[in-house]
Structures are given as C-alpha cells and as structure tokens.
Amino acid sequence: MTSLSIYVVRYGIMSWIPNYLVNIKGFDNSTAKWLTGIFELAAVPGVIIIGFITDLLKGRRAIMVLVSLIAMLACLITYFAATNHTLIIIVLLIMGTFIYAPATIVGLMVNEAVPKFANGMSTGTMGFCQYIIGEVTATLVIGWLVQAYGWSAGNIIVYIFAGIAILASIYILVHQNRLYKKIDDAG
User: Which residue stretches of the chain have pLDDT < 70?
Assistant: First the structure.
C-alpha cells in the first residue's frame, strides 16, 4: 500500500506538471515541460544519498521512508500553496527526491523480506500495482476530478494518498522496530 500510494503521488505530480504550472501557477509552456524532466533527474542524487543512509542505519530503512514521506508532504503543501516561481522550482527539485527515495527503498524492503527465489515475483507484483493502479489513479482519476471540480479536487487526491503512504510507513516502521528488537535481544 505504501508503494502504490507513493506512485499515485508521483504520477499525480509528474503527469500534471506542465498543465498545472501553466494553468494555475502562470509558468510558460516550455519551462513547465522542462521542469517535468528536472523533477525526475533531481531525484537521482537524493535517492542515492538516502539509500546510503539506510545502509548506515544497518537496514532500518522504514525510518528513512517515513522521514522522506513527511518531507514529501511538506513539499506538496508548499508546491500547491506557493505563488513564487523560484520557490515552486526549488520545491519540485527537492520533492523529486522525497517521492523517489521512499518508492525505491520500499521496493528494496520488499525484496529483503521475501526469499531470494521470490524476488522477481514480488518486484513484478509491486510494479504492476504501482503502474496499473497508481498511474491510472493519478492520471485518469485526477484528470476526471480536475475537469469536473477543478484543481483542488486533484490536489486532495494527492494529499489523501500521501497520507495513506505515511500511515502505511508508520505501520511498517513499528513492525520493523519490533523485528529488530527481537534480533537485538537474541544477539
């Protein structure tokens, strides 16, 4: 559920950057299109750094997922509320990291939790849910809502799925901490 929710947020932002920035934030069309690519490219160094931090935490990855998701929510609030173009660009650059890092780390956590022979199936199932359910919700459903009720409705969907991702990551964190406590007590 965490991964699927993150993908709704990811595509809910990425798919609509050109349209949203031009129609709501007053950007010119070429800048808005350019920012879609920058949103994704800017995430790469952040994903590597956050992944490295989870390694330093000896595999306690759920805490960094939760921290990233809370930072993502702060970026979403700023992105939707801001009127200053420079601030919007900066937030998009930062937000890319805080969307892609937890998506990547959750995938890693799933593969660490299943036997090696099931990695392909777990990755494939998660990817299917991310793209089919997550992307369809983010593009089709948000598109319908925006057309019928305006951008506020689309933003609400993004906020709802950001909240679901945060709640699911809290659940994962609690259970991961219990598991590591058992391991620490046994060792």
Answer: 183-184, 187
Q: From residue 126, how far is each of 89, 108, 133, 156 by CA, in Å?
A: 30, 11, 10, 24
Residue 133 to residue 71: CA distance in whole angstroms = 24
Q: What is the distance, to the nearest Å, from the Cα of residue 178 to the centroid of all Cα atoms in its chain?
A: 25
Two structure tokens written together for 83: 């009127």
pLDDT at 155: 95
Assess contact for 60 and 115: CB atoms under 8 A.
no
Question: Which pLDDT belongs to residue 187?
Answer: 62
Q: What is the pTM of this model?
A: 0.89
Q: Supply the pLDDT for residue 151.
A: 94
CA distance 68 to 95: 9
SS3 128: helix
In what helix (H) or strand (E) does residue 59 lie, and over which residues does it extend? none
pLDDT at residue 161 in the model: 95
Cα distance between residue 152 and residue 89, in whole Å: 20
CA angle 16, 18, 19 (to 5 degrees): 65
